[in-house]
## 1
Amino acid sequence: MPLKEFDLAGKAAVVIGGGRGIGKGIALTLAEAGADVIVAARTADEIEQTASEIKSLGRKGIAVSADATKAEDADKVISAAISEWGRVDILVNSAGAGSRKPIVPLPGYKPAWAEAVKDFSSLTSEEEWHQMLDANLTTIFLATRAVGPHMIQQGKGKIINVSSMTGAKGFAYQVVYCTTKAAVSMYTRSLALEWARYNINVNALAPGYVATEMTAMFFENEAVGDTLLRSVPLRRLGQLREVGLLAVYLASEASDYLTGQTIYLDGGLLA
C-alpha cells in the first residue's frame, strides 16, 4: 500500500516550463501521484501535448501559453489556477535556458563538443547575459511573487525551484549559466526563511546530467559522450522520471519538515 504522505490526490499544481524536458517529466510524475496540473510555457503545441498526457493519467491537465519572463504572464498563469481550483498547492519553476560559451573568445582553443554549440568563438554579449538571468532567475522571482499572496492566505504551499549541479560546481564555458543556478539556490534558501511562518516550504532540486534533448547533442560525438559519463560515478545519465519522483517528494507531505534546501540529483558527481 502506498504511503499516504506521498499522495498528491486533490492537490493543484502549476509547472512553469512544463512543455518538455525536466519540466514535462515533473508535470507528468506529479499527475501520476494524483495532482491536477497547469503547465505553462511559450510553445503552445508542447504544453498542449503535456496537458493531453496528464489527462491520459486520469488527472486534469490545463495548458496556459505564457512567457515566464514577463510579470503579466506569470500573474496570468497563477490566476488561471486560482480560477480553476481556487488554490495553488504546488508551484514548480522549471523554465530556463542553458549556454556553453566563453565570456570572451579563447584564441587557438575549441573543445570537441563545441562543434554542437553556436557561436562558441564569439564574445558573450550583454544581451546574452540578461537573457540568461531572465530565463533562469527572473522567471522564478515573478512566479513566486505571483503565487505568494495566495499561498500565504491559505497557510500552506510547496515551491520547487529547478536549479542545477552547476550551481555548486564551476564549469568552464558556462560562467553565466553557473552563476544563475547558484543564485537560484540562494533565492530558495532566503525565500524559505521569509515564508516559513506561513507553512510554505521552498526547496530546489538540482539535477546533474539528465537524458534530455539538451544533453543528447553531446552524445553525437562518442568520445565526448564517454568523457561525460566517466565524470559521473554511477556511469549513466539520470532519467526524467527520477527527477519527477524527487519532485513528488518535495511536493508532498513527506517533505513538510524540509525547507530552504537544494537537493542534488547527480549520480554522485559532486561527491
## 2
Amino acid sequence: MKAMEVNKAGAEPGLVLVDLPAPEAGPGEILVRVHAAGVTPTELLWYPTTHTKSGMARTRAVPGHEFSGVIAAIGKDVGEFEVGDEVYGMNDWFADGATAEFCIALPGDIARKPATLAHEAAASVPIGALASWQGLIDRAKLETGERVLVHGGAGAVGLYAVQLAHGRGAHVISTVAGRDIDFVRRLGAEEAIDYKASRFEEEVGEVDVVFDTVGGDTLKRSWGVLKPGGRMITIASDGEGATGQRVKDAFFIVEPNRKQLAEIASQLDAGRLRAFVKTTVPLNEASAAYGGAFRDKGGYGKIVITIPA
C-alpha cells in the first residue's frame, strides 16, 4: 500500500511517500480501506509519534489518526461490523495512522459513517467532536443554563465545543480572532470576544466551565474567570507536562469511543452538528499539509488528506 511515513532526516519532521505491506486484521481487529484522513499538524512532534508505548524510540510512524473509509476485512471475534460498511473514527495514537491506503482499527474505535457526509467531511470530525464531547459532557458535566467559555471557538476542536455546548442549552462565550466572530455566532455562541482587541478576563466572569484549546498564557488567565466550583478543561499540549496539580486535573487526551461517535453521527445527520473542511489535498501532498503550507487557506475546520480507491 501507499503510505506517508515520518522522516526525520531534515531539521524538522516531514513525511515521505513509501510503499508498505498492507496490514492484516488480526483477532478483534478491523482493516479499513481509507478514503480520507484528517490532519493534526502538531502530531508529528507528539510523544506517541516519536516513542512506543514502552518508551522506546519510534521511527517511521504513519500519522493521521482520524479517518473515514470502508471496511476491507474483519478479524476473528468481531461481530459488530461487516465488510463493506462505511465507517469513520480514530485509532490508537501509538498505532500506525490513516495517512495511508489502509489502517487497522478496533471495533471500539469506529462507528458507521454519518450518512449525510462524504468521506472527506466525515474524516474531519472524530478528534474535534470527541474531544469536545469528552471534555464538556464526560468531564465537565455541562448542564443547561450554565455559562461556558470556549477558547479558540473557530478552531478544529473549538467549533465542535461551541456547537455541543449550545446544543445542551448552555450560554456560550468564545474567544476568537475578530474575523471569526460572525462564524462562532452562527455556531451558537451568544458572546464572542476578539482576543486581539481586548483581554477576555476584563469582558467575562462567573463562568461555570472553561474549555481551553489554546493553553499557555490563555490558560493561566482563565482560572480567574471561573466562579467558585467552576470547572477547567484543557486539551492544550502544554498541559501534558504541567507540574501544577490543578492543570494536571484539567488536562486530558481524547480517546476513541464508538458510542460517542455513533451519537455524533446521529447529530450530524440530523443537522444539530455541522462539519467543516478547510481544504482537501492528495496523499502525496500530506507533508506540505502537516508542514503548514495550507494553514492560511480560507475557511474553517480541518485539512483532509484524500486517498481515492
## 3
Amino acid sequence: MAPELRERLRGTVRWEAGLVLALMAVIVFGVNASSQFLTSSNLFYGSLSIGEVAIMTLPLTLIIVTGEIDLSVASILGMSSALLGDLVTRGWSVPAAIAAVLVVGAAAGFLNGFLVTRVGLPSLAVTIGTLTLYRGIAVIILGPSTISDFPAKYTKIGVTPLPHTGGYLSYSVGIFIVLAIVFAIVLHATPFGRSLFVMGANEEAARFAGIRVKRTKLLLFVLSGVVCALAGILYTFRLSTAVQDNGLGLELNVVTIVLLGGISIFGGRGTIVGVVLAIAVFAGLQNALFLTDFEQRAMGVVTGTLLLLSVLIPNGSDFVRRGREFLRRRQLRSHEISA
C-alpha cells in the first residue's frame, strides 16, 4: 500500500473515531438538557426533520468524492415539490405525478452535469446558477399558491413511523437507510466506486487509467437530481403542503453534513459511514438545542461553525503533516551534506 494512501486511510479512521466521540458527547448533552431526548417520540420527530436532508447527502457525497460539488440540491427539492403539487391539482394521479417529478429531477441533474462535463464550466459556478434557476422555476409553477390537497394515504407516510420499528423511525429515514447501504456498497465495494476516488485524487491519472471521467460525473449529477426529486416528494408528503419555498436553505445543511462526515472538499477521500455518523451528530445536536429552547434563528451560527470546522480541521492536519515531512526531508539533507 502506498504511503500516501495509507495516510489517507489513517486520517479517515481517525476522523470517524472523532465523530463517534462527538456523537457520544451530543447524547450526554441531550440527556442532560432534557429527559425527553431519548424517548421514542422525540427520536421519531427528530428523524422526521432530518430524513430528506440525509437522503440528499448520499449523491452529494459521491459528487464531492470526485472533486465536484452540487449546491442546487435543495432547489431541486423545492422545484420537485412545486411540480408535484401543481400536477396533482391538474388532475394527475399521484403515482403519475411522482414519475413525472423524478424525470424532471433527472433532467435538472443532467443540465448540471452537461454544463460541468461537456461545456467545461466549474461545478461551483454552475450549481450556484441552477440553485437560483430551479428555485425560480418553483416560483413560476406555484407563485404564491399553497397546495395541500393530497390523498391521506400518501401524506400519512410523513407523520407515522415505519411499522415494526418501535415508533422510532420515519419513512424518510427508513428510505435513507436502504439507500445508504446501496451507496456504501457501490462506493466502497465496486470498481465503479474505486474509480470515483481515483478521479477525485487525480483526474488526469484517472483518464490515463481508462476511466470515462466525463460520463461518470454526468451520471452522478443525474443521480443527484433523481434522489433530490425523491426527497422533494417525501418533503411534500411530510408537510402535506407544496409551496414554492419548500426546502429553502437546506443545501447548507446538506453540504455541512457531507464535509463533517470526513468527505474531503478537494475530493478523493471519505466514507459513507462517516457521513452517516455526521448525520447522527448534526441531527442530535439540532434536536438537543431545540429541547433547551435555543434560539432557532441562531441555528445558522451552529451550522456555519460546523461547516468551518469540518473544512479547517482535516486540512489543518494535512498542513501539519506536510510541514513535518518537509522538516524531516530538510534534516536528512543536512545530514547528507555534513557527512
